[in-house]
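re: ur msg from earlier - yeah i can do the magnesium ion complex, just paste it... oh wait u already did. ok heres what im feeding in:
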Amino acid sequence: MEKTGRIIKSISGFYDVLDDESKELIRTRARGNFRKRKIKPLVGDKVTFDATGDLGYILEILPRENSLVRPPIANVNQAIVVTSAAEPNFSSNLLDKILINIEHNDIEPLIYLTKSDLLSEDKYVELKQALSGYHDAGYQVFDDQDSYNDDQVARLEATFADKITVFTGQSGAGKSTLLNHIDTELGLATAAISQTLNRGKHTTRQVSLFDISGGLVADTPGFSSIDLMDVTPEELPTLFPEFLKYSGECQFRGCRHVNEPGCEVKQKLAEGKVMKSRYDNYLYFLNEINSYKKRY
Ligand SMILES: Nc1nc2c(ncn2[C@@H]2O[C@H](COP(=O)(O)OP(=O)(O)OP(=O)(O)O)[C@@H](O)[C@H]2O)c(=O)[nH]1
Ligand SMILES: [Mg+2]
Ligand SMILES: [Zn+2]
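and the outut:
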């Protein structure tokens, strides 16, 4: 009997599928011909499956909206970019790079600030000011000084319904801590323990989605650095939502907003409507991407 469902967990060749109708969890394997066709089911995949025996079989993977490599998850709708104010220190360069990678996959990023309690009042006000620029650029920003206050956590949770959400960000930023505040029963490992586990094979092998507030949510192992290998120089300016807002009024179609005359993005930069740090990071990334091209 053919059913439909979604893979919510993958453990060494088995896939746990949440049955769309019965809401039961069915353990399955992929049909042998997937390997021949070089198709690997991913957590997040919508599938058709057969569950007549003890062990179900995935029959077909339904078309994907997108798929991430790290973490290996398909059909992701939004990403919570957990960004620490300190330990590790806030870096606009890293934040912008993460945002670009997410935008590149057609996923909506939200910014969630943690560890503001480690900043002086002045430094916090300064950082909040910088983050208001991200809000103006079109991003949802969660930047209360008390990172895990009930009201802010509830507002984040309210964005989960009917979506697949991944938590992403630098190692130690507080992704697991935030998830534990959202669902106190998760009991995710945090701090040093989580960091040592991430170096082993086991945590990365076991990507799973938690059912929270009507949506599916994944914690992911953090990283220390990322690159922009998949992004082309043509695509880069389209991954800054505030540039897109103004680029229609640039004199030249396909304007890269570097040295072109009549560039509206540079005009808005001069007026302070485009953040200088974002624009500087844009030029920096453009350089970085062009240098990959020369090397390969
Ligand atoms: N002072 C302070 N410490 C925090 C805050 N959030 C998290 N921490 C601490 O920061 C450390 C790292 O938190 P985790 O939640 O493990 O970070 P993570 O992003 O999941 O890290 P990885 O799993 O390695 O990617 C833990 O010791 C937390 O207790 C915060 O808002 N303030
Ligand atoms: Mg963690
Ligand atoms: Zn331009």
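cool cool. The chain has three domains: 2-61, 78-218, 236-295. ping me if u need the other ligands too
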